[in-house]
């Protein structure tokens, strides 16, 4: 089973060395002028209840009972697409537990990626395969590979969802690695399987796309170079809406290059999933603070440009679930969702496998409303 790997892998990966983009004092001072002040971060009761009610509903036994990842995208017609990575499907028992997964002799199905669609305050689960035999919406090429989801965007009426492919290369617990980045294109009315799958730039160890932002005629794509500790932000962009266009990469001198080898380390301390959103006249980076391993703190940085520099670090929220075996990770924003501020989600997990069977509420996203001055 792979649901713990995104959070635990950093503890087992060796460090390498490159040069980050320099951020002179003048740039930091300029960015601070665009920095909105975080006023509050409070739980979003509507979204939390939405997923609680959907997860506990046993009207269907091939639907969502818990997942991580939790990206979102507004679809044509106003529906909301929720994009998940590792997902439990099946029954929730009356005592709030779930049966073990099929591979361990139970009835719960475990898939590496799924969707859910929200319409008029109700969710429906989308997976591939059949009701009797569900499969991932982005199926692996074989038993030694799988896909975890990144951010998504709309282009030419199609949904483009990024995925990172991972592969096993041995029998050991840590004998697996990130392999490549792809983008799968889906028709909004047929999300059970992709229309097509295309390679994305995959050189130099950068996993794209931790976040996506459309701004000023470009689509900005944010990635992570995951060396365990630290993790480095990388930034690319493409003209227009589709990720299939010509990419260019943020360089160490603050310019752009078509050569992926020139992609620079913009900053460290980001998580594998994070976001950059337009707030007021500036841009806000939301991330779990990975300067400390398994940190419960969500932080914000600000910039005057979608390409940074990101400075003026502010504390946003300390996740109350973090305790003992339970940890949180991969906070990011959902700017297309209406709310009093910026809607932010984060994931909750446990180091102990049986916790997920004993308590279904653990492995579900939590939501916040973050307001700014």
UniProtKB/TrEMBL annotation:
Question: Which region is the signal sequence?
Answer: 1-27
This protein's record includes keyword Signal:
yes
Q: Which UniProt keywords apply?
A: Signal
Protein's name in the database:
DUF4185 domain-containing protein
Q: What organism does the record attribute this protein to?
A: Nonomuraea salmonea
